[in-house]
Each structure stands twice: as C-alpha cells, then as structure tokens.
C-alpha cells in the first residue's frame, strides 16, 4: 500500500478509493450490496412464496421446522419458509431505510439551511422548534403515532421521518451558519446574487459531504427504528414480512425455536452495522479536517 | 451562573410547554376515538355522548388544552380514562422501577464502556483496539429487543442463571440493566478512548513519565482522573436516550415501569396516561441536558456558560 502511494505522489486518491482501503468500510459495503441484491432478486432466489403456508412446514406436533433440509433456515409458526421471508423482509427494511431517511434528510436539510442562512426570527423559530423536538422521547412519539394510525409501509416511513430529521437539522444548521459568514458568500452578496442562488449554488454544494455522511448513518437509525416498531407490532403489518415483525410474530415460541428470533435479529444488526461502518468511514474520508487522525 | 441558570430554567419550562402542546395536538387529531374505547362496542350513541361530555371531550380544542394546562400547573396530570385513577399516582407508582432500571443500566454502561475505552486507548492502533472499537460499533447497531432477547435466551432460558422476567429481586434487575448497559457502552467507549488519548498526549503526562513514575501509576493516578471526568459529565445526555429505549426493554422483560405503563396506554388510547408519560420523559431529558451543561464547566473551567 505504501509503495502505491509513493509511486503516484501527485494525484490525490479519490474518496471512493480511500473508502475501499478501509477494511471495515469494505466489509460494510459488501454487506450492503449483499442485502440489496437479496432484496432486489428476492423473487428469483427465494425458494418459496414468503406467504405460502406449507403443509410439510410444521412438525407433526405443529412446531416450526428447525433450519436444514427443504427449508434452509427453517419455518415459522405458520409453516412459512423463513429464508424467503427474510429475503422479502430485506425489501421492507431497505425501502423504509431509503424512503424514511430520504424524507428525514430533506426536512432536516431544509430546516437547517433555512435557519442557518436567514437567522433572524425565522431561524430562531425553526431552531427553537428543533430544540423542542430534541426534548421529545423520540421512540415513544414514534410508537404513539404508529399505533394510532393504522400503519402501512408508507405511514411507518413517514412516522420515522418525522422523528428522525432533528439531528440532521442541527448539524446542517451549524455548518450553514459558519459557511454564511465566510468571505466568498459575502463576495457573492456584493456581486448581487439572490438568496436562492447563494443557497443552492454556493452553500448547498459545501454541505453535500455532510449530507452524504448523515444520510448513510441515518439509514442505520431508520432500520433500527423500523425493526423496533415492527417488533412491537405497530410497524409494518404482517403478512408483509419485515425483519422486526418476523420476530414479533414468533416471539411467543422463542424458547423452543430461537432461530426464528435470532436469524432476523442478526440480519437487523448486520444491516445497521454495515451502514454505520460505511457512514463512519465516509466521515473520515470526506472531511479533510479529520484526515491523518485516527 | 445565577442569570444563566434562570434563563435555562425558563427555556426548559418553555420547551416542556411546547412538548405538552404538540402532544396534545397530536392526540387531539388522532383518528382513534378514546370515548369508543371506554364505552365499548355495544354502547348507544347517547351513552357515548354523555361520556364525552363527562370527560370534557366535547369542548373546543383550546378549552381542553387550557383545562389541561391549568391542572398541570397544580401538579394534576388528569385521570386515566380506563383505570379511573389519577395519572400522577399511576406514574408515581411505576417510576421507582424505571429509576432502578436506569441506575442499574448506567452502572453497567459506565463499567463496560469506560473499561473498553481505556483499554482501547492504551493499546491504541493494535489489534485489541480495533476489536474493541468494532465491538462498540456493533453495540450501537443492535436494536434493544434483539440484545434483550439474546441475553434472555442465553442467561435465563439456557443457563438458567437469571429469571426470565419480572420484578422484585436483584436477579430480576441484572438482564434488563445489562441490555441497556451493553447498548450504551459503545458510545462511552468511543468518548473514553478519545478523551484518554488526548490526555495521554498532554505535557503533564510526559513530565510524570520523565520524572521516573511507572507507566501504571501514570495511567491510573494522572491520566485516568483527567480523562474520565468529561466522559462522566455526559450521563445527563444519556438519560434522554434511555427514556426512548425504556418502552422496549420493559416490554421484553416484563419490567413494571413507566415504559410498560405508556405502552399499555397507547394500545388502549388512554390519552391522559400517554400525555403524562410523555411529559415525564421530556422532563427527564430536559433535566439531563441541563445537568450536563451545568456540570461541564465545573470539570473544565475553560468552558464558559453563556
């Protein structure tokens, strides 16, 4: 590795190349690619229909089948193939992860950039509101909202977005306030640039690395929140499989059939971990002030 | 200090007022009708209306909110719709269990997190450091219920060291406290590691080494006390994170705290309880943040309160 750096001392490496050099980030990326592939190709690679209840899917006593044999990861309480449900569940996790986090990121960025650039009354009101949202017990609020509205996939995504935008707003706000005071923005103003132009052509591009980092880390939070809501039974509703609701449905039987809890549980942990690892590495790679530190 | 504290207290009160307003609005516009829940499916329209009037739910929104606030100022959180008890009394009866769980969890996460962080800082850059820091990533990536169920399976079902759930003895406390502790430890481990590394780089550590003190003594007597304080000051912020997780952990372990109370109330649309628990949690978060901000300058005089 050291020789490669020495051989090409002039051209700095791109962000992606530097990201791929980190073993943990690479591991995270591989996991994410695997989950995305599993979700996208679920109809092709899933051995069974995720909602089909198989006659031979339960033992003679009516208990779920352990992993191995015709059902690679075993079956659930209703005799459905666990592997197929996990693969389709990956779709749920990723859709919620991307949609909910996308919405949260959008709200957070808009609030943060507006409050940070305009300051004044608008900024004060927006940031006080953000402070207020920080004092909300987020999970309690999400559970409450999800329990009250009959949760569909999209409602769950919306609920998660509504409680998750606050962190992004704070970070973007701080960055925008310091950017807005820099000389090049003052220069733009003197040249007669309008607010829209300054915001979208000059401030927003500087925020892109932050947005990428928080977007990646946020997916992890979102995946965890969806799993938790679904585990409590107020998230994505069965029969649509989600890793959280697979655990919710089979929890009563977990002493006899632990794989029904721990296989989807491991999936949740691995996916959240993957996004955390990649997000953390991205923070180091994209933020020049962090370079060279450990 | 005086004016600062006063301003922060006023701010905190305003935040709590805002939380109460937003929660009230959310619960007011919700599609589920609490009166239907109380009256039952077979109730006549007349019964439903009379219950609605009794509870004051036929009043306009602002009147309802005004009444609630008026009660709140006098420490009255209203009465539960279904349990016919004062919400304040219900919360008071459940709060000790939650506080006990929280205390246990804080002990667990400090012990685990600080130990991990110190070890990682001392072995910085080596394999042990990487293993510890990766572990800390896993703990922040795991949902509470998965860790809870895993501990339950290993230590209660399999090894039978601890009871499966419930409340009462020390043995009951161990697994739920450990669940929350493990989840919080990764966060502390990272902070402790960077704090320790910063201190170990400081001049006074080099002086201590140069005057001939052993490495163990320097680490324990000189570096550790300085590195540990800023990390411990973060406990206040941690309280907020706990208040969120408590619903899940209490439901996994059947722990009779305010999380369970809230969860049951949410399922039955028992609005006064939901309001009460939300406010108590928000209070805890606000107090926690305030404490963290007040303690920081005591530990590090360079931080000025503004």
Structural write-up:
The complex is a heterodimer of chains A (294) and B (306). Chain A is mainly α and 294 residues long. Chain A has a single domain (16-39, 82-290), classed as MetI-like (MetI-like fold, Orthogonal Bundle), CATH 1.10.3720.10. Helices cover 70% and strands 0% of the residues of chain A. Chain A is built from twelve helices and no strands. The longest helix of chain A has 38 residues, at 195-232. Chain A is elongated and about 80 Å long. The model of chain A is unreliable at 1-10 (pLDDT under 50). With 306 residues, chain B is an all-alpha fold. Chain B has two domains: 2-73, no CATH class; 89-299, Orthogonal Bundle (MetI-like fold), CATH 1.10.3720. Chain B has 13 helices and no strands. Chain B has helices at 2-29, 34-39, 45-54, 61-73, 87-122, 127-141, 144-158, 170-200, 203-210, 215-232, 235-253, 258-267, 271-299. The termini of chain B are close together. Chain A binds chain B through residues 24, 128-129, 131-132, 134-141, 143-145, 147-149, 220, 224, 227-228, 231-232, 244, 247, 251, 254-255, 258, 261-262, 265, 268-269, 272-273, 276-277, 280, 294, and chain B through 15-16, 18-19, 22, 26-27, 30-32, 124-125, 134, 137-138, 140-146, 149-150, 153, 157, 197, 240, 243-245, 247-248, 251, 262-263, 266-267, 269, 274, 277-278, 281-282, 285-286, 289.
Comma- or semicolon-separated keywords:
heterodimer; A: 294 residues; mainly alpha; MetI-like fold; B: 306 residues
Set down the secondary structure blueprint.
The complex is a heterodimer of chains A (294) and B (306).
Chain A: H1 2-7, H2 15-20, H3 23-40, H4 42-45, H5 82-118, H6 120-134, H7 138-148, H8 153-180, H9 183-190, H10 195-232, H11 243-250, H12 259-286
Chain B: H1 2-29, H2 34-39, H3 45-54, H4 61-73, H5 87-122, H6 127-141, H7 144-158, H8 170-200, H9 203-210, H10 215-232, H11 235-253, H12 258-267, H13 271-299
Helix pairs in contact in B: 1-13, 5-6, 5-8, 5-13, 6-8, 7-8, 7-11, 8-10, 8-11, 9-10, 11-12, 11-13, 12-13
């Amino acid at each position: 590795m050291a020789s490669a750096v020495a051989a090409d001392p002039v051209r700095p490496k791109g962000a992606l190349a530097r990201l791929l050099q980190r073993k943990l980030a690479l591991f995270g990326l591989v996991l994410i690619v695997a989950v995305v592939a599993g979700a996208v190709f679920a109809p092709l690679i899933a051995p069974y229909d995720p909602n089909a209840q198989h006659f031979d899917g339960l033992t003679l006593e009516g208990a779920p089948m352990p992993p191995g044999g015709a059902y690679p990861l075993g079956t659930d309480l209703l005799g459905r193939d666990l592997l197929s449900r996990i693969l389709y569940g990956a779709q749920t996790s990723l859709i919620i992860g991307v949609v909910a986090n996308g919405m949260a990121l959008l709200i957070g960025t808009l609030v943060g950039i507006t409050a940070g650039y305009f300051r004044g009354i608008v900024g004060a009101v927006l940031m006080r509101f953000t402070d207020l949202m920080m004092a909300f017990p987020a999970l309690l609020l999400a559970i409450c909202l999800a329990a009250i509205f009959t949760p569909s996939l999209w409602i769950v995504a919306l609920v998660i977005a509504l409680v998750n935008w606050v962190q992004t707003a704070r970070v973007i706000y701080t960055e925008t306030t310091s950017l807005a005071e820099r000389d090049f923005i003052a220069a733009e103003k003197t040249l007669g640039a309008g607010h829209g132009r300054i915001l979208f052509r000059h401030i927003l591009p500087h925020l892109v690395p932050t947005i990428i980092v928080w977007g990646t880390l946020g997916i992890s939070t979102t995946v965890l929140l969806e799993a938790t809501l679904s585990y409590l039974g107020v998230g994505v509703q069965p029969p649509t499989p989600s890793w959280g609701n697979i655990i919710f449905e089979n929890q009563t039987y977990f002493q006899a059939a632990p794989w029904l809890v721990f296989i989807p549980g491991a999936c949740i942990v691995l996916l959240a971990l993957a996004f955390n690892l990649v997000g953390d590495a991205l923070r180091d790679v994209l933020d020049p002030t962090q370079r060279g530190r450990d | 200090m005086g004016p600062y504290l006063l301003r922060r207290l006023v701010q905190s009160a305003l935040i709590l007022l805002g939380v109460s307003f937003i929660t009230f609005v959310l619960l007011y516009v919700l599609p589920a009708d609490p009166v239907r829940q109380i009256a039952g499916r077979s109730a006549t329209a007349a019964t439903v209306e009379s219950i609605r009037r009794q509870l004051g739910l036929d009043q306009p929104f602002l009147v309802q909110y005004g009444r609630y606030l008026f009660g709140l100022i006098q420490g009255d959180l209203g009465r539960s719709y279904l349990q016919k008890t004062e919400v304040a009394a219900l919360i008071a009866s459940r709060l000790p269990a939650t506080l006990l769980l929280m205390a246990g969890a804080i002990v667990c996460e400090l012990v685990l997190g600080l130990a991990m962080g110190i070890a990682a800082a001392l072995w910085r850059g080596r394999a042990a450091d990487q293993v510890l820091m990766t572990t800390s990533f896993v703990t922040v990536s795991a949902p509470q219920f998965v860790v809870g169920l895993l501990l339950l399976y290993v230590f209660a079902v399999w090894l039978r060291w601890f009871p499966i759930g419930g409340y009462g003895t020390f043995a009951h406390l161990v697994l739920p406290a450990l669940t929350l502790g493990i989840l919080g430890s990764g966060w502390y481990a990272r902070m402790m590691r960077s704090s320790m590394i910063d201190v170990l780089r400081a001049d006074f550590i080099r002086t201590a080494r140069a005057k001939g003190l052993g490495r163990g003594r320097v680490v324990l007597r000189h570096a550790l006390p300085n590195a540990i304080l800023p990390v411990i000051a973060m406990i206040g912020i941690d309280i907020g994170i706990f208040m969120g997780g408590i619903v899940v952990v209490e439901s996994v372990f059947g722990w009779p705290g305010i999380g369970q109370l809230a969860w049951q109330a949410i399922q039955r649309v028992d609005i006064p309880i939901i309001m009460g628990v939300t406010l108590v949690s928000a209070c805890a978060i606000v107090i926690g943040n305030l404490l963290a901000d007040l303690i920081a300058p005591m530990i590090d005089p360079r931080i000025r309160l503004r």
